[in-house]
């Protein structure tokens, strides 16, 4: 059993380590950490079977972290001190969880139950997690938050704060609704992949936009958009029909 642990409180991480070593001495701890932004760099390529994931962490909670991962190839047991909303959601979606402070007997039973499900191949974790995230988003618990690599570390922002992104060679300049600019150590192509499920549109080789901030589309001069901050952005020939369709759809629903 290969395990990872993520909790912003060191004593909680070490408590889980002690429970594992006492009750499952053969368990191999591949990763343990306290910072979700650091875990985002490790987990996509980590060869683990099970992740113990804290729900409430500063900057990015456990749900938001899972939502940002492209795919989960491991199972998850959530740990939380906030039983009221989290436990209700977990029960509704049949997701494994432990309430803090974590009781050793309950910990052992949770692992044994998980192992039994795994043997029966009944633990379709990726589907369960997807259902849970959908539920959380619908209930307004989960926000579309991402961790962005900046010069001095990471910054957590909600995707609806992003107006558009502009390519700067091997970097990307981000323009936000609060009029701030961020320079990311990612190419625009990499950033586009990160935002793929949030309906951002690559309208030009150098620009990725949030369609919620489109203000006007001009068909002349090759075609260009005016964003809500007044920025004019060229539209490539292959995206003109898409932009026209978007404005038509908005007009019909308004």
UniProtKB/TrEMBL annotation:
Q: Which Gene3D superfamilies does the record match to this protein?
A: 3.40.50.2300, LytTr DNA-binding domain (2.40.50.1020)
Question: Which InterPro entries does the annotation name?
Answer: CheY-like_superfamily, LytR-like, LytTR_DNA-bd_dom, Sig_transdc_resp-reg_receiver
User: Pfam families, per this entry?
Assistant: LytTR, Response_reg
Tell me where in this chain the HTH LytTR-type domain is found. 146-239
Q: Which GO terms describe its molecular function?
A: DNA binding; phosphorelay response regulator activity
Q: Does the keyword Ligase belong to this entry?
A: no
Q: Which SMART domains match?
A: LytTR (SM00850), REC (SM00448)
Keyword line: Phosphoprotein
Modification 4-aspartylphosphate, positions: 54
| Segments forming domain Response regulatory | 2-115
* PANTHER family per UniProt: STAGE 0 SPORULATION PROTEIN A HOMOLOG (PTHR37299:SF1), TRANSCRIPTIONAL REGULATOR-RELATED (PTHR37299)
Q: What is this protein called?
A: LytR family transcriptional regulator
Q: Which organism is this entry from?
A: Salegentibacter salinarum
């Amino acid at each position: 059993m290969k395990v990872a642990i993520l909790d912003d409180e060191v004593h909680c991480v070490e408590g889980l380590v002690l429970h594992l070593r006492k009750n499952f001495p053969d368990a191999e701890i591949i990763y343990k950490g306290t910072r979700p932004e650091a875990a985002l760099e490790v987990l996509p390529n980590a060869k683990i079977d099970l992740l113990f994931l804290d729900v409430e962490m500063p900057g990015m909670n456990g749900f938001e972290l899972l939502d940002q991962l492209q795919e989960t190839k491991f199972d998850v047991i959530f740990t939380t001190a906030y039983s009221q909303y989290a436990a209700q959601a977990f029960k509704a979606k049949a997701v494994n969880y432990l309430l803090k402070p974590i009781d050793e007997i309950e910990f052992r039973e949770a692992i044994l139950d998980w192992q039994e499900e795994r043997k029966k191949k009944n633990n379709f974790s990726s589907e369960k997690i997807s259902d849970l995230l959908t539920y959380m988003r619908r209930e307004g618990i989960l926000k579309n938050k991402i961790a962005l690599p900046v010069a001095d570390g990471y910054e957590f922002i909600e995707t609806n704060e992003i107006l558009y992104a502009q390519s700067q060679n091997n970097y990307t300049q981000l323009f936000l609704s609060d009029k701030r600019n961020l320079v990311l150590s990612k190419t625009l192509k990499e950033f586009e992949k990160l935002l793929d499920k949030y309906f951002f549109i690559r309208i030009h080789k150098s620009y990725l936009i949030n369609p919620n901030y489109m203000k006007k589309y001009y068909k002349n001069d090759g075609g260009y958009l005016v964003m809500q901050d007044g920025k004019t952005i060229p539209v490539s020939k292959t995206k003109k029909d898409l932009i026209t369709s978007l404005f038509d759809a908005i007009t019909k629903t308004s």
